[in-house]
Design goal:
alpha/beta; 60s Ribosomal Protein L30, Chain: A; Alpha/beta knot; 2 domains; four-stranded mixed sheet; 9 helices; 40% helix; 21% strand
Length: 254
C-alpha cells in the first residue's frame, strides 16, 4: 500500500488520535523537545508507533516544505467512506439534514486545506470537487486543514454537473455563489438539505456548474474589495447554514 506523508503537529497528532494503526513511523527533530513535542511523542509511544530522529533537512525533504514544525509522519491512506452515495445514505438514515460543500476549480492546496477546516468546524458532511479541476489531498492540504483532512470526506467526481443533478434527486438544493446574483446569502433558506457551491478565485464557477445550480446567491460586500478568498466565503456561508439549522432546531424543540 502506498504511503502518504503528514507534517505539522495538528495533522500528525489527529492521525495518531483517530487512526493510530495507520501511522507507520513518526519522524521528529531531536532539537525540539518542548511540551508540544513531548506530548506528541508520548502519544506515538502509547500507540506503539516507531519514532525516528530526523533533522531539518530530512524533514523538509519528507514534507516538501520547511513549515513542518519539526515533525512528519509516514501513514497509510485511510478512506473515510467509500462513496458519496454511501455517506448521504448514512446521513439521511441517521435523521440528519445533509450539508455539502462543493468546490469547482479550487486547485490551490492551501485553499483546499482551509476549506476542509471550515467544513469540519461548521458541521458539513463532506466536500465534493471535480477530478479534472481540483487539487487532491496532499501533505500541504493536510497541514493547512489542521486535522480536518482526517475527518471530512473529500470526494473527487468525474462529472460535477452530473453529481449535482444526482444530489437534486435526493432533494438536496444546489445553491451557488456569484458576485452578480440578485439575492444575498442572508435572504436564502439554508436550513434544509443543501449543497453550497463555490468556484475558484477570479474565474468563479464554470458555466455548466452555474447553470446546474437551483439558485445563485451573493455575499454582501461593503468595502472596496470585490470578493473573498474561497475558504473565507465558504466559512461565511457554511456557518450561516449552521446558524439557520440551529434556529430551526430550537424552534422545533420549543
Amino acid at each position: 500500500m502506498a504511503l502518504q506523508t503528514l507534517f505539522g503537529f495538528h495533522a500528525v497528532g489527529i492521525r495518531l488520535r483517530t487512526a493510530p494503526r495507520s501511522v507507520v513511523e513518526v519522524h521528529a527533530d531531536p532539537a525540539r523537545r518542548d511540551q508540544r513535542m513531548r506530548q506528541l511523542l508520548a502519544r506515538a509511544e502509547a500507540a506503539g508507533v516507531r519514532v525516528s530522529e530526523a533533522d531539518d533537512v530530512r524533514l523538509t525533504a519528507l514534507a516538501g516544505t520547511r513549515r513542518h514544525q519539526g515533525v512528519a509522519a509516514r501513514v497509510e491512506a485511510i478512506a473515510l467512506t467509500r462513496s458519496l452515495d454511501e455517506l448521504l445514505e448514512g446521513v439521511e438514515g441517521a435523521g440528519q439534514v445533509p450539508l455539502v460543500l462543493v468546490l469547482d476549480g479550487v486547485t490551490d492546496p492551501h485553499n483546499l486545506g482551509a476549506c476542509l477546516r471550515v467544513a469540519d468546524g461548521a458541521g458539513a458532511h463532506c466536500v465534493v470537487a471535480p477530478k479534472d479541476h481540483a487539487v487532491g489531498v496532499n501533505a500541504t492540504v493536510s497541514k493547512v486543514a489542521s486535522g480536518a483532512a482526517e475527518t471530512v470526506p473529500y470526494f473527487m467526481v468525474t462529472n460535477l454537473a452530473r453529481t449535482l443533478n444526482e444530489l437534486k434527486e435526493r432533494d438536496i438544493r444546489i445553491v451557488g455563489t456569484a458576485e452578480d446574483a440578485p439575492r444575498s446569502i442572508w435572504e436564502v433558506d439554508l436550513s434544509g438539505p443543501v449543497a453550497l457551491v463555490f468556484g475558484a478565485e477570479g474565474s468563479g464557477m464554470r458555466q455548466l456548474t452555474a447553470r446546474t445550480c437551483d439558485e445563485l446567491v451573493r455575499l454582501p460586500m461593503h468595502g472596496l474589495v470585490e470578493s473573498l478568498n474561497v475558504s473565507v466565503a465558504s466559512g461565511v456561508c457554511l456557518y450561516e447554514a449552521a446558524r439557520q439549522r440551529a434556529v430551526r432546531s430550537a424552534a422545533t424543540e420549543g
